Amino acid sequence: MVDRRNNKRATELPADANRVIGDEAAPARGERVRSGTRAAKASPTQASAGSHVLPRRAERRPEMIKQRRDERRQVYERQRRRTLFIRIGLVILGLVVLGGIGYVAYQRMNDDGQPAIQGVKNYKYAGGQHSTEPVKYAEVPPVGGVHDPTWQNCGFYGQAIRSENAVHAMEHGAVWITYQPDLPKDQVDLLRQRAKQPYMLVSPFTNLPAPVVASSWDHQVQLTGANDPRLDQFLGIYKEGPDTPEKGASCSGGIGNPE
Questions:
Q1: Structure pTM?
Q2: What pLDDT, on a 0 to 100 scale, did the predictor assign at position 115?
Q3: Cβ 175 vs Cβ 212: under 8 Å
Q4: Residues paired with residue 202 on neighbouring β-strands, in sequence order
Q5: Cβ atoms within 10 A of the Cβ of 223, count?
Q6: How are strands ordered across the β-sheet holding 175-179?
Q7: CA distance 236 to 144
Q8: Which segments of the chain have a pLDDT < 50?
Q9: Which of 2, 118, 123, 170 is spaced 20 to 30 Å from 19 by Cα?
């Protein structure tokens, strides 16, 4: 009996002891509650930190757009400058090419601005100087200078004619084609056909420096024959050419009877 009571007393604790136990246990629960509160309070902070990421990206977006626009603008400007330089280079190249062509063309022009013909000699004589006396000319045959007041009628002549009259015909725009007296007949016939054209004067000439010589006022070329291609070129430029003193004057009604 004694033992049972003792055991009962041992198991039954005073109320103060329970309070002590309760007081000792309460802080632990409170501490867990406070830690839970801190954890709960930390969650809005983390959420707030995460929420700041999107606004910062949104704030940087206009800067990124501007940067990309600047990069595209720089690329465009580089391409535009490159294109401009290419165009300028092509223009300069074109000008150089045109200048070269112009220079070559200029080199092929004579002093009168006419296309140059190989072997053409150019002179300067004033027109309108008449004389009935024989004239000693510097060129063979003559190409201008003092001449007879009466011009030679244009056409073909089988005999030599006076230089003073022929020079007057050149003053009116005629081309005087002279040929060596021993020129082959077939070539003489070619010259005869040419003499049928307006402002053409053809005749033999002694002591001629070439088989055929074509002369106009201030211009002359020595030819290898009647079929020399330079003859057509000479006629195309110098018959009634720019240096003719009395261009358009008659080549008939003067002296001589052409065949």
A1: 0.59
A2: 61
A3: no
A4: 156, 177
A5: 19
A6: 121-122, 219-223, 212-216, 175-179, 200-204, 155-156
A7: 19
A8: 1-45, 47-51, 111
A9: 2
